[in-house]
Amino acid sequence: MSLVFRRAVLLVLWCLFTSTGCQTTAKFQERMISAYDRGEADEALSQLECLADRRDNEPDITSLNRAILYLLDFRPESAIRELEFSRKRLDYLQQVNVTEQAVSALNDDSSVAWIGHDFERRMVDNLQVIASLIQNDDDVFALASRGMNGVFADERILNRSRTAVESNESETVLQSDPVPARFAANRMTAWLAAASSSERILDADVTDRLMQQVAVWEPSGNTGTDALQTLGTRSSRDSGTLQVVTLAGRISRWKSKQIIPTTAALLLADRVLSVTSDNSLPPTNVPVRIARPVRQHYQPTFLTHISVAGEKPKRGRLLVDLNAAAWDAWQAGRDQQIARAVVRRVVKKGVVYGAGNALDVRGGSVADLLLNVAGLFWEAHEQADLRQWNLLPAAVEVVQMELPAGNHRVNLQVFPSNQQASGIPADQVELPVTIEDGRNTFVVCFRPYSRLAGVQCSRPADR
Amino acid sequence: MDTRPDAWIVLLAVLGMSGLIGCRNYQHAQILSATDKDMVGSHQAGAATWKPLIDEAVVRLLARSVDSVETVSYTTPVGLSVRTVCFAGVENRSSEPLGDFREQIYEHIDSLVGQSPHFQMVSRRYVEAAMKEIRCRPDALILPANQRQLQASLERVDQPFDYLLFAQVTSGTTDINGDYQRDYLLTLELLDVHTGVAIKESAQLRKGYHKSYLGRLRYELTSRR
Lengths: 463, 225
Known about the structure:
Chain A is α+β, with helices and mostly antiparallel strands. Chain A has helices spanning 2-37, 41-52, 59-72, 76-93, 98-106, 118-135, 140-168, 185-197, 204-216, 260-276, 322-358, 366-380; strands spanning 239-248, 254-258, 289-293, 302-308, 314-315, 317-321, 395-404, 406-416, 427-435, 440-447, 454-457. In chain A, strands 6-7-1-10-11 form a 5-stranded mixed beta sheet. In chain A, strands 5-4-8-9 form a 4-stranded antiparallel beta sheet, with no helix packed on it. In chain A, α1 (2-37) packs parallel to α12, α3 (59-72) packs antiparallel against α4 and α6 packs parallel to α8. Chain B has one domain: Rossmann fold (3-Layer(aba) Sandwich). Chain B has helices at 3-22, 47-68, 101-115, 124-134, 144-156, 213-224, and strands spanning 74-75, 81-93, 119-121, 163-176, 179-192, 198-209. The longest helix of chain B is centred in the N-terminal third of the chain and has 22 residues, at 47-68. The chains are: A alpha+beta, B alpha/beta. The A-B interface holds A 91-93, 95-102, 142, 145, 148-149, 152, 156, 200-206, 209, 233, 236-237, 437-438 and B 15, 18-19, 21-27, 43, 88-89, 91-92, 97-100, 102, 106, 124, 127-128, 131-139.
């Protein structure tokens, strides 16, 4: 009896210890995020390193966040290295590990290694291409091609599922239906690959095909692909293009959500079993929780206006809404998440019930009460899996301009979204750029909130 | 009590099996020797498809062009007629993306044709720069006005040409309940820019794609009949 009591006390202490640790980790995370929102890359990096030292830190997410901060801090080569490392890790971790799955059945979803959602993994590829474009190196083609391999694989999967729906259901799903928003990052991959190939005129048909892919992955309500066609050698003679890519906002947080109907059903089931069997089951007092993104769409509070001397200012066009991608990914995986949570509860209750049987504990005894309390703590310790790539932007916006070859000064201004491009901007940056004949000059800027945190150019001109 | 050891054995067996099945594996690679067969792509054409297609199409074109082609750029001191060729790239009109194989196809064709004593290829770097300068896509080079512009641009760097070489990849798909046959056709077209006469040669390869090993087995059994 005393042994059972001691174990129950130890379990409570362990729960308290781990939850305190999580709070400290969360504090570092909050500090890092707010430093990022203010555009302070150094401070965010130092907070991230504090976070990396924590025992309960998620190393792969830290690595991806570090890559974003390197990009913000004008260190594209470090960002590429970090992203490549993460990419290999995620590829490896995507393989199912049964031991992890078994542990997760006794604990919660966070016992399984974090692999991110498909759109997050695609964004790893996209950010590698962006970093490579800023560096102006030769790996752009290889990185873009590698990303496209994933996009074509997704297309095959999507086509297969559409065919399956067509053959199984009376309601026809047309090929022309918009693709689910969770695939939206593929659009950016295709656009970056098209931009890369557009500088080689011999590959003009490849660029056409890639632009078709940009259209294929366009969720409903997004900017039409026609507005994204000003690329490389598609410009007039003696002209080039300016591509301003804005990584806007920060992706929606995931929060814990109670699933009341499932909890009620489980409570009903365990009460029936408790009444009909010799010893009781821990009641389902702790609701079943799953993780869910807070926002459904990207709603910009601020907008970036880009102008070149003598030209009318242009506003960024939405290339990818990652909030919508996260929301759709959650919806697609919601049933599985609930199913896993239910299985976990059943396993936990089964273990407690089995332990009661093995120890010959009778219903209504003190031992039964202690066993149920321990079971309750065990269930209460279960948390929704809120792990996510925190510093991923909420959206990616693009502005394209065809300009004569030579040096130009680009003016980037941030205005509140409800205000016209006049008056005093919230932030502004002027950047000298070089436009080369038939080539793309990329300007990549981070706008986590109202500030232009990091503005970098693939072909800067002398000031 | 007697059943407990059995239960432990079963539990250990289950854990052991799950450990074996569920372990993560690292990727491995090996160098293929010259005698090793090319790997066959499971979802699209790869080395095993493109290499024989290129070899066959180029050999056919070279064999035919020795007799058929009339315009000669210059003759070597030993009396060998040489034609200068501007390779305008590989056009993909198939239902598959060529991916990084596109560059390989270009380079293989360029090297193989260039190895023939009767042909001299204009460097790809000159061709790309000239086409970029005049903003002309390869498929628009069939127009005489564009040809003249390209010729003028290449003449400025002392690289005139007499022939334009076009390569085109096409495919045709036959679907049989999810399994499918895809025919790949590589066409090479050599166009005399002075006379407008073109010679065309192609090579074809058929490939079967099966959703499962059973599908392949079923195909092999039915095709033997």
